């Protein structure tokens, strides 16, 4: 049984990559180690899990069936072990979650500083990715995102909002009188995020239809937008967590606060087997509180 539990995670990676070499690269171990772990699983179970030769590697039906069930089993076992520790008085375990680039950086950094102070026995692994990971197969506890289509099969919890605000530097506004109406942006240098799928460039209004804009700079990199705004190049639309310190230090000033802005939901997606995890719950509670505090900056 020890060999089964120890080597099932390797089988999950093999089932997803279909390659000893790719699995070894992902796990950060030699190819021979992956092969040895697979052999130990076969010995423990008494069945063949892979058909190997010099040219190909194919998992058997038994291996595919085992891997299909293993992710859920390992997730449930992890949750039970964390619950037992929590009942003994300590939130302890390993938290692995994925998030898109827009939620990485300062947003996650400040959150983790608070979380680590409260729960120092929790080890954290963050994977920043634009793709949508498979939670069970890749052994993610959660996906924290602002884009969660309703058709996704996982359990979801709304954790709060991201607030987007228009900002500019005092130096820029000293040379260009601050706009008082949304349509005044046509006379300003606009720094914007990417175009919509339809190729349109618009900024959200707090009330009414979106406002068409003609930006001087278009980029999907939020830190670049922040730096260009700090350098006095124009007016940018940015999430509050990225500019809250700049606003507090008067390095940036909010523009058209009564007209321009938007809120975006932050959602955590996770498999039901991890829903009762005290580690996950503690992290979600911290994130929800943090986003609520950011709202006070706007």
Automatic annotation (TrEMBL):
InterPro entries named among the record's database cross-references: LysR-type_TF_proteobact-type (IPR058163), LysR_HTH_N (IPR000847), LysR_subst-bd (IPR005119), WH-like_DNA-bd_sf (IPR036388), WH_DNA-bd_sf (IPR036390)
Record's keyword terms, sorted: DNA-binding, Transcription, Transcription regulation
Keyword Transcription: yes
HTH lysR-type domain segment(s): 1-60
UniProt family annotation: Belongs to the LysR transcriptional regulatory family.
PANTHER family: HTH-TYPE TRANSCRIPTIONAL ACTIVATOR TTDR-RELATED, HTH-TYPE TRANSCRIPTIONAL REGULATOR
Name the record gives this protein: LysR family transcriptional regulator
């Amino acid at each position: 049984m020890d060999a089964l539990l120890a080597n099932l995670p390797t089988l999950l990676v093999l089932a997803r990559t279909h390659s000893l070499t790719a699995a070894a690269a992902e796990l950060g171990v030699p190819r021979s180690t992956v092969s040895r772990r697979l052999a130990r699983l076969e010995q423990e179970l008494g069945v063949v899990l892979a058909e190997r030769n010099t040219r190909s590697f194919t998992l058997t039906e038994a291996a595919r069936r085992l891997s299909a069930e293993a992710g859920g089993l390992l997730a449930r076992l992890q949750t039970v072990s964390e619950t037992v520790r929590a009942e003994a008085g300590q939130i302890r375990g390993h938290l692995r979650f994925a998030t898109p680039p827009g939620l990485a950086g300062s947003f996650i950094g400040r959150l983790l500083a608070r979380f680590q102070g409260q729960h120092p026995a929790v080890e954290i692994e963050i994977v920043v990715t634009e793709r949508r990971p498979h939670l069970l197969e890749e052994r993610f506890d959660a996906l924290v995102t602002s884009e969660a289509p309703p058709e996704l099969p996982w359990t979801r919890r709304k954790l709060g909002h991201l607030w987007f605000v228009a900002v500019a530097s005092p130096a820029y506004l000293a040379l260009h009188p601050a706009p008082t109406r949304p349509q005044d942006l046509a006379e300003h240098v606009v720094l914007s995020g990417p175009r919509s799928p339809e190729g349109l460039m618009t900024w959200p209004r707090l009330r009414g239809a979106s406002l068409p804009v003609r930006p001087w700079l278009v980029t999907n990199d939020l830190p670049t937008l922040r730096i260009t705004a700090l350098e006095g190049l124009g007016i940018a639309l940015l999430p509050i967590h990225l500019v809250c310190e700049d606003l507090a230090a008067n390095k940036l000033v909010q523009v058209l606060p009564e007209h321009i802005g938007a809120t975006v939901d932050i959602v955590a997606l996770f498999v039901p087997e991890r829903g009762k995890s005290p580690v996950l719950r503690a992290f979600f509670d911290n994130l929800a509180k943090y986003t609520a505090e950011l709202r006070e900056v706007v």
